[in-house]
C-alpha cells in the first residue's frame, strides 16, 4: 500500500486565516473608543417661579466616589459658585433662586484622588415679573416716601453736627493757644 504523506499545506490553509482573524480582533479591541465617563444625570426644573431646582443622580458612580463638588451658575455676566460636601452631593438636589430667564448650570464632582466629572445643562424660563398687585405697589411707594423723609432728616442732622464739630475744633484751638500747648499735643 501506498503511504500517505501528511498534508502540511492543509494545516497552513486554515491556520493562517485564523491567525489573521485573531490579529484583526485584537487590533479592533484595542482601537475601540473608551466608554465615556458615567453621567451624573444633571437636570433642571422650576417648580415655582424663580425657584430653579437643580438635580443629579446621587447614586451615580462619580457622585458616590466624590469627596467634594461645586455648582457653577451663570446668568448673563453674573456667576455664582456653591461648594458641595459629599453629604449634599449624595442627596442629589439644590434649589437656586434665579434672577434671569436664562441660567447655565455646571456640576463638578471631584474624587479623592483628584479625578473630575463635569456635566452642564441650561435652563430657559419665563422672565420674572414684578407683582402687579396695586396694593404692593402703593406700599412700596409709601416706603420710598418714608425713606426719602428719613434721608432728608439725616442730612439736616449731619449738617448741624458738622457745624458743631467745627465750633468744638475752634474752641479746642483757642484752649490750646491759651494753655500754650504746641500743636495740640
CATH superfamily of the largest domain: Immunoglobulins
Please name the CATH topology of the largest domain.
Immunoglobulin-like
Percent range for β-strand residues: 25-35%
- Radius of gyration, in Å, reads 38 Å
Count, helices = 4
Straight-line distance between termini: 138 Å
What global shape is seen?
A: elongated
Query: Which stretches are poorly predicted, pLDDT < 50 over at least 5 residues?
Result: none
**Main sheet summary:** 4 strands, antiparallel
Q: Name the structural class.
A: alpha+beta
Rounded mean pLDDT score: 83
N-to-C SSE series?
HEEHEEHEEEH
Total number of beta strands: 7
Instruction: Indicate the percent of residues in helices.
Output: 40-55%
CATH architecture of the largest domain: Sandwich
- How many structural domains does the protein architecture include? 2
Query: Strand order within the widest sheet?
Result: 4-3-6-7
Indicate the CATH class of the largest domain.
Mainly Beta
Task: Reconstruct the topology from this structure.
Elements: H1 8-31, E1 43-48, E2 51-55, H2 61-65, E3 68-75, E4 78-85, H3 86-91, E5 93-97, E6 102-110, E7 116-124, H4 134-179
Amino acid at each position: 500500500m501506498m503511504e500517505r504523506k501528511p498534508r502540511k499545506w492543509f494545516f497552513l490553509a486554515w491556520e493562517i486565516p485564523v491567525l489573521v482573524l485573531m490579529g484583526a480582533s485584537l487590533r479592533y479591541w484595542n482601537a475601540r473608543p473608551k466608554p465615556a465617563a458615567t453621567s451624573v444625570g444633571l437636570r433642571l426644573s422650576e417648580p415655582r417661579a424663580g425657584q430653579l431646582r437643580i438635580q443629579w443622580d446621587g447614586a451615580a458612580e462619580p457622585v458616590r466616589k466624590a469627596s467634594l463638588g461645586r455648582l457653577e451658575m451663570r446668568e448673563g455676566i453674573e456667576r455664582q459658585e456653591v461648594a458641595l460636601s459629599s453629604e449634599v452631593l449624595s442627596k442629589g438636589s439644590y434649589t437656586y433662586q434665579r434672577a434671569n430667564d436664562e441660567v447655565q448650570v455646571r456640576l463638578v464632582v471631584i474624587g479623592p484622588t483628584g479625578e473630575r466629572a463635569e456635566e452642564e445643562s441650561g435652563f430657559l424660563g419665563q422672565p420674572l415679573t414684578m407683582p402687579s398687585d396695586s396694593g404692593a405697589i402703593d406700599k412700596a411707594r409709601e416706603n420710598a416716601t418714608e425713606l426719602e423723609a428719613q434721608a432728608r432728616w439725616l442730612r439736616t442732622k449731619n449738617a448741624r453736627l458738622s457745624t458743631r464739630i467745627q465750633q468744638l475744633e475752634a474752641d479746642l484751638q483757642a484752649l490750646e493757644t491759651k494753655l500754650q500747648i504746641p500743636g495740640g499735643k
